[in-house]
Automatic annotation (TrEMBL):
<keyword id="KW-0186">Copper</keyword>
<dbReference type="InterPro" id="IPR013766">
    <property type="entry name" value="Thioredoxin_domain"/>
</dbReference>
<comment type="similarity">
    <text>Belongs to the SCO1/2 family.</text>
</comment>
<protein>
    <submittedName>
        <fullName>SCO family protein</fullName>
    </submittedName>
</protein>
<feature type="disulfide bond" description="Redox-active">
    <location>
        <begin position="77"/>
        <end position="81"/>
    </location>
</feature>
<feature type="domain" description="Thioredoxin">
    <location>
        <begin position="39"/>
        <end position="203"/>
    </location>
</feature>
<dbReference type="Pfam" id="PF02630">
    <property type="entry name" value="SCO1-SenC"/>
</dbReference>
<dbReference type="InterPro" id="IPR036249">
    <property type="entry name" value="Thioredoxin-like_sf"/>
</dbReference>
<keyword id="KW-1015">Disulfide bond</keyword>
<feature type="binding site">
    <location>
        <position position="168"/>
    </location>
    <ligand>
        <name>Cu cation</name>
    </ligand>
</feature>
<dbReference type="InterPro" id="IPR003782">
    <property type="entry name" value="SCO1/SenC"/>
</dbReference>
<dbReference type="GO" id="GO:0046872">
    <property type="term" value="F:metal ion binding"/>
</dbReference>
<feature type="binding site">
    <location>
        <position position="81"/>
    </location>
    <ligand>
        <name>Cu cation</name>
    </ligand>
</feature>
<feature type="binding site">
    <location>
        <position position="77"/>
    </location>
    <ligand>
        <name>Cu cation</name>
    </ligand>
</feature>
<keyword id="KW-0479">Metal-binding</keyword>
Length: 204
């Protein structure tokens, strides 16, 4: 029994070490990941029409000329969304004046609850330049599909029907000034790494 427990402990330690190594590689090799992502044969991104937090209808073309940092999530998200938006906000602050060349976008995957008014209050918590986008269920579906974003409602066993969570993929997408896909920053990428990568790209 003791030997079995030792084997289990050793296997667990190995798994943790491998996971830590993967996480370290992801965080410390942002540029190479972003560059390799552009070689994908699967198109990512494309035209979209949505509504921003002021109630104005916008399209992807409205943001031409700037790099886009795009995160898909929802305002009722208890953990990963505020964490990643906080990372985006810090990266923009670290960029200083270069942040004028970057437009951060938060696209809701929960149009049922993320109204324009609610979205306006939410994005204001993170950064003055952060734009929140929502729309009809069809608009959200089409935009998420274009960016290969997974999302699905996850009803809770206890509580009211409206007290549900949303399962969704978690990446910060980087789009170029021409609207083309550049790559992704995986969850866990630090603000320093994002700012470093973006700063290099902006400087040319």
């Amino acid at each position: 029994m003791k030997a079995r427990l030792l084997r289990i402990a050793a296997a667990s330690a190995l798994a943790l070490a491998v996971s830590a190594g993967i996480a370290w590689w992801q965080v410390n090799n942002v540029s190479s990941m972003v560059q390799s992502a552009t070689k994908s044969a699967v198109p990512i991104g494309g035209p979209f029409t949505m509504t921003d937090q002021t109630g104005k209808a916008v399209t992807d073309a409205d943001y031409r000329g700037k790099y886009l940092l795009i995160y898909f999530g929802y305002t009722y998200c208890p953990d990963v969304c505020p964490t990643e938006l906080g990372v985006m906000a810090k990266a923009l602050d670290l960029l200083g004046r270069q942040s004028d060349k970057v437009q951060p976008l938060f696209i809701s995957v929960d149009p049922e609850r993320d109204t324009v008014a609610h979205l306006k209050d939410y994005v204001a918590l993170f950064h003055p330049n952060l734009v929140g986008l929502t729309g009809t269920a069809e608009q959200v579906r089409d935009t998420a599909r274009a960016y290969r974003v997974y999302y699905a409602k996850a009803p809770q066993k206890d509580g009211k029907p409206e007290d549900y969570l949303m399962d969704h993929s978690s990446f910060i997408y980087l789009m170029g000034p021409d609207g083309g896909f550049v790559g992704v920053y995986p969850a866990g990428t630090t603000a320093d790494r994002i700012a470093q990568d973006l700063g290099t790209r902006i400087a040319g």
